[in-house]
Design goal:
The complex is a heterotrimer of chains A (126), B (478) and C (443).
Chain A: E1 8-9, E2 14-20, E3 23-28, H1 30-36, E4 39-43, E5 50-51, E6 56-62, E7 66-70, E8 73-80, H2 82-86, H3 89-93, E9 101-109, H4 115-125
Antiparallel strand pairs in A: 1-2, 2-3, 3-9, 4-6, 5-8, 6-7, 8-9
Chain B: H1 44-56, H2 78-84, H3 87-90, H4 102-119, E1 123-125, H5 131-148, E2 156-160, H6 166-173, E3 177-181, H7 191-197, E4 202-208, H8 220-229, E5 233-238, E6 257-260, E7 280-282, E8 294-298, E9 301-305, H9 322-358, E10 363-364, E11 374-377, H10 379-385, H11 389-397, E12 405-406, E13 415-418, H12 426-445, H13 447-452, H14 464-469
Parallel strand pairs in B: 2-3, 2-4, 4-5, 5-6
Antiparallel strand pairs in B: 1-7, 6-7, 8-9, 10-11, 11-13, 12-13
Helix pairs in contact in B: 2-9, 4-9, 5-6, 9-12
Chain C: H1 9-19, H2 49-61, E1 68-69, H3 82-88, H4 91-95, H5 106-123, E2 127-128, H6 135-146, E3 153-157, H7 162-175, E4 178-182, E5 184-185, E6 188-189, H8 191-197, E7 202-209, H9 219-229, E8 232-237, H10 239-244, H11 248-251, E9 255-259, E10 275-279, E11 292-296, E12 302-306, H12 313-316, H13 329-367, E13 382-385, H14 391-400, E14 403-404, E15 407-408, E16 417-420, H15 427-439
Parallel strand pairs in C: 1-14, 3-4, 3-7, 7-8, 8-9
Antiparallel strand pairs in C: 2-10, 5-6, 9-10, 11-12, 13-16, 15-16
The chains are: A alpha+beta (126), B alpha/beta (478), C alpha/beta (443).
């Protein structure tokens, strides 16, 4: 599995990349996409929806599984990545280049891990 | 194989109807359909050939060994279909006056008595069209019951983690939150986990007994006590009644509501996905909540009654999949008081026999006595050879056998869930065991062969990913 | 006693020996005695096939099979061609399980794909599923497709079939959903009520075409109102009406549902029938139940498979929007075979004969004093008349001549009759009916 050193990780396998103090991109980790297999569909939130820590804002489907996508922050959905909505398989090929939503007005950040701790966390889970 | 649309030739048709014998009437132009109606234009011979070819690419219960776990693919007796096809049943309009349908009503009344006796319930509705539909009906009754007592905080249904997916889905449809409790190391309901989950917000517990691991919940009396004490009701998912019918009655073990899958336990066919029937029985204190209409009898005359103030309503139009109920009734009358438990015992004997014949190779997920089915795990095999449960399943197809249920229950990794049923012979089980053993050996020597399977079937493994990513869900005429 | 156990006692004993057990009862030794049935089931002894047949034939004999039927109200007698019955009796179609193993189930899968296509054609919609239980549950499931956190109030016209309305009410009660019944005015949906009430909380409006009274409603106008309020439109349609009348798509519906029983399925005292569901492309993933899609196998051969399964209960569990698992597969196959047999011209011919015969009958019946039409509205193959005599007595009189008369209505139309005419009713039958009505009743 790959990790990206510059971003933060949640226990439910989302990554967060801060663009500034109150804006961030959220995606799914390499570990998550590997567990799920070939991704076929994402249920996206709408722009303007509120998201909050450890609460699902959408879900993602493979052929035989479905998994919630939880928010690692409290904030407002500023943008959904339409390209990923159309081509969820991009998450399989490039998980860290494929953000799912952009959240702005972030007021709270959940308990997140850095790359090293996340790697250890995944090893334990496996 | 061609689609029926690809067999179509403009202008061809089957001449079925005589010309209209009254003056033609037409809709007003603004009410008429503008879109073209592109249905096939074919002759009868072409249709006959088409469906004969489709049938040849279909695997029926008599095509081969069919041990699909949790589905009870037993033999479907022919007499059942013949009875359902009698014009005195099949040509009866559902809204005929009661005195012209006394036979239909008597059949429903008789079926209610027999299935209530088998389940230990007091009343039953035949309205639900399938098991999941029965679950929803039963859960709405539970909701009605708590509502009627102004006990409105009960919004949770407890469901073991081994439950069929329909259980939590039904709970959601009935407006409940489902609380999943994990099974103990013995594969049974963990009483401590249940105690912790049960409380004043518990509406009820849904339980399949024997459970989907094929194990009888022997603590059922204690389970019932815990749930009842908390103020909840017990719902019996009848998907797995087959191995205990005539041996244990859900009603005697504390269950308040039961649904049956007539298309599993009572030998009615599965129809390539349906129709089934999911009658729901209950104890007397819940009868007033049953859906309407209900069949009743007075002085030897049968009639429909709908005037129940507390009824939950209706689950569908009319009275359920009546012709399916007739088939199940025919089966029950045929087997009778001794034949019912004998069928159950045969199912349990077959399952244990097959499990013991395989346990030296495949690991049994929860060893011990099983009921109608048992669950193997192919995980050790997969670690050793890379061959998965799916590969085993696909390889069985080349041996003209239907695979077991795979990857369920979800708590068992690489699960193979095998239910031989009561109508399988020792001989066919022995042959199946031989094939399973061959496949095991093949997995160790030539795993690639199993990854490639099937090779003899009409089509090979499918690209399910593209099917889901770029769905093509209808024929494109252009 | 009948039995389908294929092992002899001797074989069973060999199997028990292998297990180290002395008797069949030992198979249950882990079940506590206190929960076991002590004296066996209190049901009759099993019977031979011939005895059971006699018993069931006796029951069938207690029902009246009418040679002439003028009653519909949600269940319709149409001609079922011999080929349709033959195809629907093919053993493998009858006994197969859900096609979860596509490599050995192409027959069933392809038949469903064909069925989905035909339902799309009939309704004018983009996508259809593999069936649900019946017309009533199709309505209930369609409503669930439209509800979300922001819009959770549903509107159903009072002119839909009463059983459908009751079923929808039950489903809404279950889900804790607010349901508003849009009142009826002169036999049709009260448009003024719709206009006044639909708002930003409204999830959907459901109507039936033709409605319970046989009337063709102005669906387009209603759906325009719904669209303006941002609510979805659901049309429950008679499949034969769909063949000649404006389709749900043409009327602006988002979802089309209906009862497929008229398409080659016997009356069967109410079931099994066939719920069909179709919708616009955008709502595809909200459709409940099984859906078959086209794909290829690893050699590139066209093949069919159950797809979009992550919507369904076996994967999504408590988050699934529907719990449906078993559907009405064999009935869907029957309907597809029926539609293929009749073809576009045959289906339209049935529809036109229904329409023409109903109008012929309406003209004659309403000319009999006291049998005036209750509604002044265009209808398809059903209509309501008054009845100048006791409805029960009239029905009894018809029954003596082997005729099942129209359906006696209740509620606000107590004393009125809902008549139905299909291609099965000949001119002679209709003339005979009118003659009987003219004779009157000896009160």
């Amino acid at each position: 599995m790959k990790v990206d050193k510059d971003i933060k990780y949640s226990k439910t396998h989302e990554w967060v990349k801060f663009l500034d103090d109150t804006t961030a991109l959220i995606g799914l980790t390499d570990y998550a996409q590997e567990q799920l297999g070939d991704l076929v569909f994402i249920n996206m939130p709408a722009e303007g929806d509120e998201v909050s820590c450890d609460t699902p804002f959408g879900d993602i489907e493979s052929v035989k599984a479905v998994s919630d996508i939880n928010s690692p922050v409290d904030g407002i959905v500023a943008e959904v990545n339409e390209e990923i909505a159309e081509n969820p398989e991009n998450i399989n090929s490039d998980p860290y280049g494929s953000w799912i939503i952009k959240v702005s007005n972030i007021t709270e950040i959940c308990d997140l891990m850095d790359a090293d701790s996340y790697e250890r966390f995944c090893q334990e889970e496996a | 194989m061609k689609l029926i649309f690809e067999r179509s030739t403009p202008g061809l048709s089957c001449e079925v109807l005589p010309p209209c014998d009254v003056e033609p009437y037409e809709l007003k132009p603004e009410q008429r359909r503008g879109q073209e109606l592109r249905l096939p234009e074919v002759t009868e011979g072409e249709i006959s050939r088409h469906y004969t070819q489709l049938e040849s690419q279909t695997f029926g219960v008599n095509s081969g060994y069919y041990p699909l776990g949790s589905c009870t693919m037993k033999y479907n007796p022919k007499i059942n279909d013949e009875i359902a096809g009698l014009p005195g049943f099949s040509d009866i309009h559902p809204l005929q006056p009661a005195h012209t349908v006394q036979g239909c009503l008597e059949a429903l009344h008789l079926a209610e008595r027999l299935f209530c006796e088998i389940t230990g319930m007091d009343n039953m509705t035949f309205q639900p069209a399938a098991g999941a539909h029965g679950e929803l009906a039963g859960l709405i009754m539970i909701k009605k019951y708590h509502d009627s007592r102004q006990d409105e905080k009960r919004n949770k249904i407890i469901v073991p983690d081994t439950a069929h997916g329909t259980n939590p889905a039904s709970a959601t449809m009935a407006g409940f939150t489902s609380v999943s409790i994990s099974s103990g190391s013995d594969g049974l309901v963990d009483l401590e986990a249940l105690k912790a989950a049960a409380g004043e917000d518990t509406a009820g517990l849904m339980l399949t007994n024997p459970n989907t691991l094929g194990l009888f919940e022997k603590n059922i009396v204690e389970i019932a006590e815990i749930v009842h004490k908390a103020g909840g009701l017990l719902y019996y998912d009848g998907a797995n009644l087959n191995p205990v019918m005539g041996i244990v009655r859900p009603g005697d073990t504390g269950f308040d509501i039961v649904h049956l899958n007539l298309h599993k336990t009572f030998s009615t066919p599965h129809g390539g996905g349906g129709p089934g029937a999911g009658p729901v029985g209950c104890k007397a204190f819940l009868s007033k909540f049953l859906p309407v209409p209900r069949v009743e009898e007075k002085d030897g005359k049968f009639y429909f009654a709908s005037d129940y103030e507390d009824t939950m309503g209706s689950m569908k139009a009319f009275y359920g999949n009546f012709l399916i109920v007739l088939r199940a009734l025919t089966y029950t009358l045929t087997l009778g008081r001794k034949g019912i438990p004998e069928a159950a015992k045969s199912a349990v004997l077959n399952a244990n026999y097959m499990m013991k014949s395989l346990e030296d190779l495949f690991q049994v997920a929860f060893p011990g006595r099983c009921m109608h089915e048992f669950v193997l795990t192919a995980e050790p095999l997969k670690k050793k050879t890379g061959v998965s449960a799916l590969d085993i399943a696909k390889s069985l197809l080349d041996h003209e056998m239907h695979p077991p249920t795979v990857y369920f229950p979800q708590i068992v990794h690489e699960a193979l869930m095998i239910e031989p049923t009561d109508t399988e012979s020792k001989q066919s089980i022995d042959e199946a065991v031989k094939v399973y053993r061959q496949l095991y050996e093949k997995a160790c020597t030539d795993p690639e062969a199993l990854h490639q399977a099937p090779v003899k079937t009409a089509v090979r493994r499918l690209d399910e990913v593209t099917a889901a990513r770029k769905p093509i869900l209808r024929y494109n005429f252009d | 006693m009948g039995s389908y156990i294929p092992n002899s006692k001797a074989e069973q004993e060999r199997m028990l020996d292998f297990l180290g057990l002395a008797s069949l009862d030992d198979l249950y030794d882990e079940i506590p005695d206190k929960v076991k049935l002590k004296d066996g089931l209190n049901i009759p002894e099993g019977k031979s096939e011939l005895e059971v047949r006699r018993r069931m034939e006796t029951l069938a004999g207690k029902n009246t099979v009418f040679h002439t039927i003028f009653r519909g109200a949600g269940a319709y007698r149409h001609y079922i061609p011999a080929i349709v019955k033959a195809v629907a009796s093919k053993e493998k179609f009858i006994t197969a399980y859900t096609p979860y193993q596509p490599e050995i189930s192409q027959g069933v899968l392809q038949s469903i794909f064909e069925f989905q296509t035909m339902i799309c054609e009939l309704t004018g919609m983009d996508v259809a599923n593999a069936s649900v239980y019946d017309g009533a549950t199709a309505c209930a499931e369609a409503i669930s497709m439209c509800v979300d956190r922001k819009r959770d109030v549903v509107y159903v016209s009072a002119t839909v079939h009463p059983d459908y309305l009751r079923t929808v009410k039950t489903y809404c009660y279950a889900a804790g959903r607010k349901l508003v019944v849009v009142p009826e005015k002169d036999g049709v949906t009260d448009i003024a009520f719709l206009k006044e009430n639909l708002d930003e909380k409204s999830a959907a409006f459901l109507m039936q075409q033709p409605n319970f009274y046989g009337i063709i409603e102005d669906a387009e106008t209603y759906f325009g109102v719904a669209r303006e309020a941002g609510a979805k439109s659901i049309m429950c349609i008679n499949p034969f009406y769909g063949a000649i009348g404006r389709t749900p798509r043409e009327c602006g519906a988002d979802i089309a549902v209906g009862e497929g029983q008229p398409l080659g399925i016997s009356l069967g005292f109410g079931g099994p029938y066939l719920g069909f569901m179709a919708c616009v492309q955008e709502m595809t993933r909200k459709l409940p139940g099984r859906i078959v899609g086209q794909t290829t196998d690893l050699e590139g051969k066209r093949a069919f498979v159950l797809t979009l399964q992550a919507r369904e209960q076996h994967i999504r569990r408590e988050k699934a929007s529907s719990n449906i698992c078993s559907n009405q597969g064999l009935c869907a196959l029957t309907a597809a075979c029926y539609m293929s047999t009749m073809g576009p011209s045959g289906i339209k011919e049935v529809a036109n004969q229904c329409l023409s015969k109903a109008h012929y009958a309406a003209k004659l019946i309403s000319s009999v004093p006291g049998y005036e039409l209750v509604f002044d509205a265009e209808f398809f193959h059903e209509f309501v008349t008054k009845c100048p005599v006791s409805v029960n007595k009239l029905m009894a009189k018809l029954e003596r001549q082997g005729i099942l008369g129209g359906y006696p209505l209740g509620g606000p139309y107590e004393g009125c009759i809902l008549w139905c005419f299909t291609e099965m009713n000949t001119k002679e039958e209709i003339d005979q009916l009118v003659a009987i009505l003219k004779e009157g009743i000896q009160e």
